[in-house]
Amino acid sequence: MVLWIYPDAISEWKSENKNGLIREITVPTQCGPVRLRNRLIDRPVFKSYFKREIESKIRQFLGEKTVLWYYSPQFSFLCENRDLWDAIIYDCSDNHTTTGWKYRHEKGILESYRDRISALFSLLNEKKILDHTDIVFASSEYLYDKLKAHTTAPIHLEETGVDLDKFNAKETYDQIEEFNRPRLGFVGKLKKKIDYQVLDGIAKSNPSWNVILVGPRYGVDIDHLLETSNVTWIGAVEPHEVPKVMNSLDVGLMPYREIEYNEAVFPLKFHEYLASGLPVVGCGLPSTDQWTQNGVYIHTSAQSSDFSNACDEALSWETNKNIRKEIAAQADWSSKLDRIYHRVLDTIHFDTS
């Protein structure tokens, strides 16, 4: 049994069996009358409360072989009790020890101080997990290099993949089909780590292009961007409609801010764009540099003029669709998960032999 245990701003405990092998346990970040920020739950003053509550709740799920699976450096104290676990896994897909998604000049003194303290807490938690983990998975070369320097456990690079079967559909998305081509689209969560100035720049300098944003907004104001006549925000779509959306685009966009956090990011949408046959243009994502290839992907600077030129070049790539799909096929989640599964089994077998 694999246990995923993570905090959330909810009022009651949640436990969900995913497929018979994985149980997801959501822990309410409530300590008495106070709802805590995630960065505080591992601190000594709250640690004993959460440790007692979590270990009490999970006893019923502890079986012959139990794996503690970390996605983020929270509840790091759970790894201290090795009697509970046959294996501990750290599956890292974000740089949890940075100071956030803003540039330094965008922060006030108090915010900067708070972010530095939060990063320090995350660093301490991550170090504790790395000291106890049996195996590490990293989703980008940046994270691989960073974590490898701080652990003696075996570490494996597994970049984000794609559910290929979902991207074999030929249907398109009606609302997007109403716009003239070329259509350049960003598909994903609209967060502060995205570079909206780049999007604004390419839209204004190329009025014949339609820039389509598809996804929910998370704490960002894009009203100024939507004032440009050739920028459209579709909003969130159901997961099964994402392939239809991508089938209606001409170029997939990944405009990320050039900040430390994004140095570790390998976007899920990269292989999804390719699986749809789309050429891709990105910035602020050095972990994707290795995928730069004529007819497939351009990683450029966050200057609007450079990004615009890259998009113009990508629009001229009309004959490489099959190559892009073949690259995506190598990142199919089914083969990745099978590889991860067997590595975990090998680890448990080694520890209990």
Write a brief structural summary.
The chain has 353 residues and is of the alpha/beta class. 34% of the residues lie in helices and 19% in strands. The protein has two domains: 2-161 and 334-352, Rossmann fold; 164-329, Rossmann fold.
Summed up, the domain count is 2
Q: How many beta-strand segments?
A: 15
What portion of residues is helical?
Answer: 25-40%
Shape: globular
Numbering strands along the chain, what is their spatial order in the largest sheet? 2-3-1-6-7-8-9
Between the first and last Cα atoms, what is the distance in angstroms? 18 Å
Q: Please indicate the percent range of residues in DSSP E strands (runs of 2 or more).
A: 15-25%
Q: pLDDT below 50 for ≥5 consecutive residues: which ranges?
A: none
Annotation field: number of helices: 11
CATH fold name of the largest domain? Rossmann fold
Oligomer: single chain
CATH class of the largest domain: Alpha Beta
What's the architecture of the largest domain in CATH terms? 3-Layer(aba) Sandwich
Mean pLDDT: 91
Question: In CATH, what is the homologous superfamily of the largest domain?
Answer: Glycogen Phosphorylase B
Largest sheet: 7 strands, mixed
Q: Secondary-structure element order, as H and E?
A: EEEEEHEEHEHEHEHEHEHEHEEHHH
- The helix-and-strand class reads alpha/beta
Radius of gyration: 22 Å
